[in-house]
Write a structure and sequence with these properties.
The protein is of the alpha+beta class. The protein contains 24 helices and 31 strands. Strands 1, 18, 19, 20, 21, 24, 25, 26 and 29 form a nine-stranded mixed sheet that branches. The chain has a four-stranded mixed sheet with strand order 2-17-16-15.
Length: about 775
């Protein structure tokens, strides 16, 4: 990820998405009614009341974001920035749109021609797909396809397009980042995982979650390249920053010695080398070499596409068979984002990279094909993205989108500094801009301010790996005290969340849990997870109160006690000296005014809580700008970052993927595949790793459990994660934006999943030509 995706009024992004912590706004609120604050019934020349109906006029929606997408290949994208272009240039089988009453959403067929038909009975007992013989619903859906759908060049999109695209995203030769969306997301296509993981070597970790398996050294293999080792990540990621740790007594480079192959046999010489590396990272356990070790258990078998539950049942008809049941809502919810790719370009841009095949599809205008309302016309990395109306999109002629998509062009400038973005907005060159706390005194009462509640929770993520932290220490500079849970707990309690939200943000609200109030566990009734008894008990337990209304998350005195106990324990263990300073590197995207203010606030909180403790005036946060800070966090090259996860608002259970699947989380030192949690489930004490709890809740034995049981498991997982104090929540996001006088939203009351109606509903008070004239008349200094 390269940057924050600034708020925009589009259809909801349904996947779990990580964002950069640059949006400085919050708290859910909205207009009291659905009317525009300006009365559009009184037209006047060159005013924002002017209604425009000229069908030949152009209406450009001007946006600004802080970072460029790395790729908009729907099989490989990772971040909110990456999804920007796809939000306009693609369309799902089904989509969420503002209902006629403008107070709720409706799910409408788009690339599908009609509602899905449950055909579970046709596949019940089918051994190919593992559908239970007694299954009656939820396992298979037949979807008629929209026969008018085509690519921007006019090529028809049919069932073969979907089959090809799914085969590619699940290709075991390509190892696409988004592949798990098809087998581990909101729905799981039957046997998709087996197809994706075929022809892969099977290596089993020597550590089984409770201890080392009893395996002879001669049967072990080890890896620097692929292992997740004792200090939290692969040696490959650590080598360049810690060369000395990979050097033996004779000056030989141990990493270079074992980096040519993925796996090596464990010889006595290799074992000794591995122990040298382990010791250099602070682990003197004589069995530490086993952290690098695996047993080879053969190759996963070949698996035929014929057994994958994505089936062409007609030229314009698909049937999707699932590995686990899904309600019609969740089926349509998941299918609102379909990863279609244009075969000719996709194949043309493939290239072998080692043992993996990759494609550069979706990295430039000439390597991409649109099939949504807009098509990409220009992309200049770090400068501008331009899109225009896709004349071959079916929606402009099908009679079902009347009054929608008035926008003819989209121009997005890429500008890092928020102050510059605001300046462009006031000049009339940008139509929506995020506000930061320093803007609110001036614009808080503006009729053009819009508050948009988000699913995102921002946290302070802390490196907890003692070995990794020690490897970053220098003489007199301590970092490993952060590996002590009391220290991290003290950090959490010393953060004044109320003060932070009010002083450092525009309208963010204090955050106390990992999952915020935007997550709905019952989509039919619209009940938020945070309002459940189980979720409320989690926060009460964590913060030691009887009622959630009493939670502040702030206890300076208790924090002082914990800082003291952490220091004393570290001193006794020889992990800190009485003269050491504690310097904690805080990686941020940039050092603009907003982020600098945030880190200074946290420093002041630490200073206040360490008064009269052994750590008084000894703990400092060192701010380092790093546009790749998420990547570096995953390799342990940090002490703290702001981290933010959100998306998928109708499935809080799946949100745990961000913290329970190793390649997702940024809490370096926490190993979800090894860390265990015991939960009382219906009177029985059940112990699993965090990873296994996630799998059981979303794919396994608790997928179809009653809702109280599922909520209990989710709440206890959240509590278990919060009690590691690796990622204390800081604030819940609500973006605070201003819209220009040029545009109107379809509604000003926030509606879940569709916000204010999205690009579908934006209307214009001016043509582009009239807007330019209006701005010039006002000397390009508009008043809001």
């Amino acid at each position: 990820m390269k940057n924050t995706k600034f708020s925009k009024v589009l259809r909801a992004t349904l996947g779990l998405i990580l964002v950069f912590s640059l949006m400085i706004s919050s708290v859910a609120c909205g207009k009291d009614d659905n009317t525009d604050p300006k009365d559009n019934s009184q037209p006047a020349d060159n005013s924002d009341n002017k209604q425009v109906t000229d069908t030949e006029a152009t209406y450009t929606f001007n946006e600004v974001v802080a970072g460029s997408p790395d790729t908009w290949n729907p099989h490989e994208w990772e971040t909110h920035d990456d999804s920007y272009i796809m939000d306009y240039t693609t369309m799902g089988l089904y989509d969420f749109a503002l209902a006629e009453d403008k107070e709720s959403y409706v799910i409408v067929p788009e690339m599908a021609a009609a509602e899905p038909v449950d055909v579970t009975s046709e596949y019940a007992g089918d051994e190919r797909f593992g559908v239970p013989a007694d299954a009656t619903e939820g396992y298979a859906y037949k979807v008629p396809l929209n026969q008018e759908a085509c690519w921007e060049n006019g090529t028809k999109i049919n069932a073969d397009t979907y089959i090809y695209s799914m085969q590619q995203i699940l290709s075991y030769q390509m190892k696409n980042y988004r592949a798990n969306d098809e087998y581990a997301g909101n729905i799981a296509v039957a046997n998709a995982e087996k197809y994706y993981k075929q022809q892969s070597a099977i290596y089993t970790d020597i550590y089984d979650g409770e201890g080392y398996r009893d395996v002879a050294d001669s049967d072990m293999k080890f890896s620097f390249v692929n292992s997740v080792v004792f200090f939290g990540d692969s040696a490959k990621d650590y080598y360049s920053a810690n060369v000395d740790c990979f050097t033996d007594a004779d000056g030989n480079d141990i990493y270079e010695k074992y980096s040519k192959e993925a796996y090596y046999d464990l010889t006595d010489e290799a074992k000794a080398d591995l122990l040298v590396v382990a010791l250099a990272f602070g682990d003197d356990n004589p069995e530490a070499y086993k952290e690098f070790c695996f047993t080879y258990d053969g190759m996963s078998p070949e698996f035929s596409w014929d057994n994958v539950g994505y089936i062409k049942t007609g030229e314009y008809e698909l049937t999707v068979v699932l590995g686990r049941p899904a309600t019609p809502f969740y089926f349509k919810y998941a299918e609102s984002s379909i990863p279609l790719v244009y075969e000719e370009l996709y194949e043309e841009n493939k290239k072998e990279t080692g043992d993996i095949i990759k494609t550069s599809y979706g990295t430039s205008v000439d390597k991409y094909m649109s099939y949504g309302p807009y098509k990409l016309t220009e992309f200049q990395d770090g400068k501008v993205i331009k899109m225009t109306k896709n004349d071959n999109w079916y929606g402009y002629n099908d009679g079902k989108h009347e009054g929608q998509y008035q926008t003819t062009d989209i121009v997005c400038q890429i500008v890092v500094e928020q102050a510059t973005q605001l300046q462009l907005f006031l000049q009339g060159r940008v139509d929506v801009v995020d506000l930061v706390s320093t803007d609110m005194d001036k614009y808080r009462t503006s009729d053009y301010v819009v508050y948009t509640p988000q699913t995102y929770t921002s946290k302070v993520t802390m490196n907890s790996s003692k070995a990794a932290l020690k490897s970053r220490e220098t003489e007199g500079i301590n970092k490993s005290i952060q590996s002590y849970i009391d220290f991290r707990h003290a950090m959490s309690l010393c953060f004044d969340r109320e003060g932070f939200a009010s002083q450092c943000t525009a309208t963010h609200s204090p955050g106390f849990g990992i999952i915020n109030a935007m997550y709905i566990y019952d989509p039919d009734a619209g009940i938020p997870y945070r309002s459940s008894t189980q979720a409320q008990e989690t926060l009460c337990t964590l913060y030691g109160v009887d009622n959630v209304d009493d939670i502040t998350g702030y206890d300076k005195d208790k924090a002082a006690e914990l800082f003291t106990s952490a220091y004393n324990d570290a001193l006794a263990a020889g992990d800190i000296k009485e003269t050491d300073k504690v310097e904690l590197e805080f990686l941020v995207y940039n050092t603009d005014e907003a982020l600098t203010k945030m880190v200074i606030f946290l420093q002041n909180c630490i200073d206040a809580a360490t008064v009269d403790t052994p750590l008084e005036n000894r703990v400092s946060l060192v701010t380092t700008p790093d546009q790749d800070y998420y990547d570096h966090a995953q390799t342990g090259m940090f002490e703290m970052i702001f981290s933010t996860w959100g998306g998928n608002p109708m499935n809080p259970f799946n949100m745990m993927e961000c913290y329970c699947v190793g390649d997702k989380l940024f809490e370096y030192g926490f190993k979800p595949e090894k860390e265990t949690l015991t939960i009382n489930v219906n009177g029985e004490e059940v112990t699993k790793t965090f990873f296994d709890w996630f799998k059981a809740l979303n794919e396994g034995e608790y997928l179809q459990a009653d809702m109280d049981t599922r909520l209990e498991i989710l709440a206890k997982m959240e509590l278990g994660l919060l009690e590691t104090y690796n990622c204390p929540p800081l604030y819940y996001r609500t973006t605070t934006t201003m819209r220009s006088q040029k545009i109107n939203y379809a509604t000003y009351n926030y509606v879940n999943l569709v916000a204010f109606g999205g690009i579908r509903g934006i209307s214009y008070n001016y043509t582009d030509k009239e807007w330019d004239a209006y701005c010039k008349e006002n000397n390009n200094q508009l008043q809001y």
